[in-house]
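re: that complex we talked abt at group meeting.

here r the seqs, copy pasted straight from the sheet so there may be weird spacing, ignore it
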Amino acid sequence: MVALGIDLGTSSCRVGVWKHDHVEIITNEHGNRATPCYVSMVANKCVIGEEAKRQVPSYPQNTIFNAKRFIGRKFNDLEVQSVMKYYPFDLFSKDGRPYVTIERQGQQDFSAEEISSVILKKMKSLGEVHLGVPCEDVVITVPCYFTDAQRRATQNAAKLAGLKVLRLLNDSTAAVIANGLASDRDLESDEHRILVIGLGAGALDVTSVQDQWGVFEVETVAGDCHLGGEDFDDRLVFHFVQEFWSQHQKDISLDPRALWRLRAECERAKCALSSATRADIALEYLHDGIDFYSSITRAQFEAICSDLFQRILDRVEKVLRNKDSVAEVILAGGSTRIPYIQTMISKLVCGKLPVKNLNPETVATGAAVMAAVLSGNLSPKLEDTLALDVASFSLGIQTAGGVMTHVISSSATIPTRKSEIFTTYADNQSSLIFRVFEGDNERANDNNLLGIFELSDIPPAPRGVPRIEVRFDIDANNILDVTAFDQNTGRMKGVTVSGPAQNHAMDDSYQQFMDEDAGTRVKKTLDWYTSNLRLLITEDKLPGTVKASEKASLESAVKRAEEFLSMAEKEGPNVERYEEMQQMLETTSLSILRKHGTAPS
Amino acid sequence: GLRALVHLRLASTVSGTQYPFPQHPRPTPHQIFHLSYGASQADIKSRYYELVREHHPDSAHAQHIPPSERHSRFQAITAAYETLTGKSGLQFGSGPRGSPSDVYMYEELMRRRR
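got the structure back, here u go
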């Protein structure tokens, strides 16, 4: 069975296949090796790629592009909200997710998944025409920093297109595989560290990879899946919208057609500035019959985007600082052609390291190689192609005081499975609610909430006694599966933590809860917990084995909390201090109760 | 030269792998690595990559094994590697890591459900 490798980018898409011992990038019907990610739907006709892109000026509201920027996101995400005003098509919220709406016969509302699936279907048919056989199996590349939801949505798009995803491969891993295949690797070498910087239209990936003993081992990934060429275009568009306003007192951002033409011109100017120091903008009859002529210098462009460039360099520097002995730097993606970025990266590595620019097809090439490997191609050329990838984010559960307790740490080799034991916080508590997060921040709420689930029917027991094992499984696609089970009863609960079919009822009541004043919430929590512990002490309900010294330390912890509560009443709310106190109290009480609760009587 | 050498070595191990995964349940890290207790960190590291090449779920040498078995073998190898290199902070039989979320939320959600 032949499998295809697809580089599904933000602005363009490429498909490749391993044939005659090398990768062939398949051309589309126009002879182009990259197909623009544009889908245009007018009346009952749907066109994709170049034709769709050409249709934008005539049908700006019926032509969708950059769907990858919305896939797997919530409508209210800052990333969606901040860019939607620059797009000529209309986005709206359905079940909290962004949808586009198109005025035409038949289906009018489309999710980003559906738009992406149309593009993937096109890639599938290009592959089938090229090979002359049906193709279902694919490897699709995604930015390293794609979240669980974005990965699931991409998989779903492939499914809608009738494809079977053999692997969601990280862009930079694909680039390293392709680069390794093209160069002479020393298979017996220990430690050859490569830094891959991928900057395309939509996302930034910074990855450090070790090539040792014939295995590519990804060490760390850093990045931003909403930082790339499209953001530079947005800045330029904004710049010229303002300029138009100051010249003519007319706002073209309300004119979809003008906005699109300006956007296309800005992209062209941006590319021109990679070789020239000045680019002209010329748009006749842009808006209200007014011709618009302007120009921009490279220095101006760098100034407009300076904070974005700085963000990119900060990420690179962060990875470089923690990694010594980098032997090679490779740059992948169209936006790495920007001279300022190249200069700054050379400066960061002190001009010592070779900085290599890969051709734009590298990612698709890597995907095609991986597709061949995973579909069982035994070509000797592919024998040394093995990549150990890592979890892109830490994954964990919120525990006392809003702390993120990691179950899997970022940079753990995948596929992986890890377990942690959790317990109850109240006597005879019958269920536990778990909030699963992804992200590297210490405070759970600063991370991305993947989902909430509940394990119920826990048999009555003193607090701290039940042992609830929570198991995190990350597959090779970096997609998480969580199961929880009661070690005493064996009762199990499997959960899919994200995706459209998640637990809405739980989400709603949780949201209501979170909307309440945070100050009230932490206060009530601490109040409740303290009074319960106090009751346990005064009514002498502590397990008989608790030593006097332990009882005393429990007593003093409770007392500290009580004093804090009465003091805080006067001083006004301070969420963090409440949480600190809660954490102190839980740590102390749990360590004692756990010890005695679990010991055989 | 080197590449050919490695191919020769890999080709010779396609049918019977060089470091087969132990058949008995609960093998020790050293048994998985086919190393004695005195093995150096350098030995452990290079053996790890040899094991990865043989047993990684994507490896051509592991394709005849059912996927779930491939995964659990690989996970056992990475876990053993963590133990042998001292990277694993997890002790067996350790107690609970605390309780999830907070009490008030639990109470509130229960109340609202009623």
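couple things i noticed - Helices of chain B lie at 2-13, 29-33, 41-55, 67-84, 103-113. Residues 5-15 of chain B have pLDDT under 50 and may be disordered.
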